[in-house]
């Protein structure tokens, strides 16, 4: 019998009164895989994570973690995973090191092991020099790295990262990405939520795109972009009436958001050439297609509203 997968969700529903936050989704995560739940705020990503980690009761359906039913075996499930939540829940009364040592007690870790793991993890997240400092002195990026270290204390087989880099500057974001890649390399299974298209592209083997509580589509980032959008996107603004009329007569997949037109060029070069040759004055930008465009083409709205 093959080992059960790290995550198996079936018909998962979460309702708050009349509002359905997660609407009957199915997904699996395989051993050693890094999967990103990608979608705008309010898509149901964090609600899904909260049900998975046993912090929010499931309305309907089921989630199994390594074959254990989350609803029935919550404590066991929590001990199998490391969780890095969105909100900072570090203890401000303790030093950086003490935050990890106290957390290690929850897992019944004996003192010497806890001290060794703490030092190893502080080293890994680049906080050794801050070990005796207080939480208040840490930047947002440092706090996030400390929470990542804390999530890894019990050597989990599954790591859950909820919006790991929201609100961080680009440099701090890169540091978190580096550590997350390291997790993948050592074979830890990772599930992360994000509304950053670049984060999903950089880290995930597979992306599950969510919108309004449902799964829109899923697949490898590059494959999704190629299949849904193509190679390039031609972005136009201050579009002249003549250009707009010409474009609307073509059979090009496109979306208009605010005053911009986004045209998907499946082949690469065809759309840009047609517009440049007829409307040389038209304001335009040609760029590689991204996951952001996949979302835009499917929903008609931007990932970051």
Integer-rounded radius of gyration: 22 Å
The count of DSSP E runs of length 2 or more, i.e. the number of strands, is: 14
Classify the beta-strand content into a percent band.
Answer: 25-35%
Q: Number of DSSP helices?
A: 11
Shape: globular
> What CATH architecture label of the largest domain applies?
3-Layer(aba) Sandwich
Number of domains: 2
- How is the biggest beta sheet arranged? 6 strands, mixed
Question: What structural class results from the helix and strand content?
Answer: alpha/beta
GO molecular function: ATP binding; ATP hydrolysis activity
GO cellular component, one term: plasma membrane
Organism: marine metagenome
Keywords: ATP-binding, Cell membrane, Membrane, Nucleotide-binding, Translocase, Transport
């Amino acid at each position: 019998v093959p080992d059960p997968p790290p995550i198996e969700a079936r018909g998962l529903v979460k309702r708050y009164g009349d509002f359905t936050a997660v609407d009957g989704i199915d997904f699996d995560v395989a051993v050693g895989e890094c999967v990103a739940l990608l979608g705008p705020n309010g898509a149901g990503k964090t609600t899904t994570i909260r049900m998975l980690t046993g912090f929010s009761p499931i309305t309907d359906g089921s989630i199994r973690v390594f074959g254990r039913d989350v609803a029935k075996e919550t404590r066991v499930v929590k001990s199998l995973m490391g969780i890095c939540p969105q909100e900072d829940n570090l203890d401000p009364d303790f030093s950086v090191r003490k935050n990890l040592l106290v957390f290690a007690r929850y897992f019944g870790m004996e003192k010497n092991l806890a001290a060794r793991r703490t030092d190893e993890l502080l080293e890994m997240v680049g906080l050794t020099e801050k070990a005796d400092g207080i939480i208040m002195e840490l930047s947002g990026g440092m706090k996030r790295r400390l929470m990542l270290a804390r999530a890894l204390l019990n050597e989990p087989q599954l790591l859950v990262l909820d919006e790991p880099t929201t609100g961080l500057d680009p440099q701090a974001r890169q540091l978190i990405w580096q550590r997350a890649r390291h997790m993948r390399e050592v074979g830890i299974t990772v599930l992360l939520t994000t509304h950053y298209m670049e984060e999903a592209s950089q880290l995930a083997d597979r992306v599950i795109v969510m919108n309004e509580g449902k799964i829109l589509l899923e697949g490898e980032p590059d494959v999704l972009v190629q299949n849904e959008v193509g190679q390039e996107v031609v972005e136009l603004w201050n579009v002249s009436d003549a250009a707009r009329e010409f474009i609307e007569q073509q059979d090009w997949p496109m979306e208009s958001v605010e005053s911009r037109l986004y045209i998907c060029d499946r082949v690469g070069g065809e759309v840009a050439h047609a517009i440049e040759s007829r409307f040389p004055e038209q304001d335009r930008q040609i760029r590689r297609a991204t996951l952001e465009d996949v979302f835009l083409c499917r929903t008609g709205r931007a990932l970051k509203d």
